[in-house]
Amino acid sequence: MHRVYKYVLPEVEKELMKLRLFAQRIPDQELRTQALSSMDSKKFHCQGGGVYAAANLERRHVLIPLIVALQTISDYLDNLCDRSTSLDPDDFRLLHQSMLDAVNPEAQLQDYYALRSEKEDGGYLHHLVRVCQSQIAKLPSYGSVQQQVTELVSLYGDLQVYKHIRKDLREEHLLAWWARHRGDYPNLQWNEFAAAAGSTLGIFMLFLAATEERLSKEDAAAIRNIYFPHVCGLHILLDYLIDQEEDQAGGDLNFCNYYDNEGLLVERLGTIVNRAREDVKQLPASRFHRLIIEGLLALYLSDPKVRHQADVRDVSRRLMKNSPLTRMFFLINSIWIRKQQA
């Protein structure tokens, strides 16, 4: 936490400030609004992702700009799709091609807005893609992790396409997508797989791994399988858990609503927490990754949204019961950070 406060959070803030200045010059009002809004309302995504740089401070000047830029693309596009003037899956697919290009240092830039009416972003999205490509080129073992990163980014893009199309088509496409992958994840339900696909934590972990010299492709595949699906799934299910009221009001899809009852939701979340803990034991710095898991639980379950939703409050209490001291530390720390930012 000393590293996070001294190095990570200030440097994440600097990167976001540079991007904010760029976003303020976006000519199209709608694109400018969504770009700035994504940084205002989702800054904690970049702060959370930046924690991975604390595990290798010598490479933080590569990792922090890379993580902030890729997460900012993700949050910006999520805003564009959530509040889209379009329901065209091809439009959503083309927008998310920018993320695939961002993690491929050899990729050529494209017109990612070609299928929508709002186009003039003043080079903002291209700038974000170039930042990612330039930082990735500095990772000594990126060649070993590139396939795994690309697969996770591709799954993320699939999810964003299917969850934002016409409401009457969402579940049909999500279930068809799950049918193509369910054989690889026999212990998951379809909504848990979809949630895991929505996390960027596995991607950031692979970026961290690529800072090491001579990482093998076999090690990269093992790391990906350690993080996906359980650590990634826990991350996004917790996000959906606290957003249930908002999503219901906005008519948005929420993966926590697909459990038959609250008891089953708690049971499945508990199972995923335990499997995530077991998975990260296989990593050399397993204690760091255990802290990530406990920090996720504390961060989300201490969110002010929890207090205003009786069902979510009850689930949170049950999940926090008999919490280890590390989780309680992060709980207090999360509350303190929110007060400071307020």
Question: Brief description of this entry?
Answer:
By secondary structure, this protein is mostly helical.
Question: Can you characterise this structure?
Answer:
Helix content is 72%, strand content 0%. By secondary structure, it is mostly helical. Helix 7 packs parallel to helix 11 (217-227) and helix 14 (262-280) packs parallel to helix 17.
* Number of contiguous helices: 18
Structural class: mainly alpha
Overall form: globular
Distance between the termini: 20 Å
Main sheet characteristics = none
What helical percentage do the residues reach? over 70%
Oligomer: single chain
Order of H and E elements: HHHHHHHHHHHHHHHHHH
User: Overall mean pLDDT score?
Assistant: 92
User: Over the alpha carbons, how many angstroms does the gyration radius reach?
Assistant: 19 Å
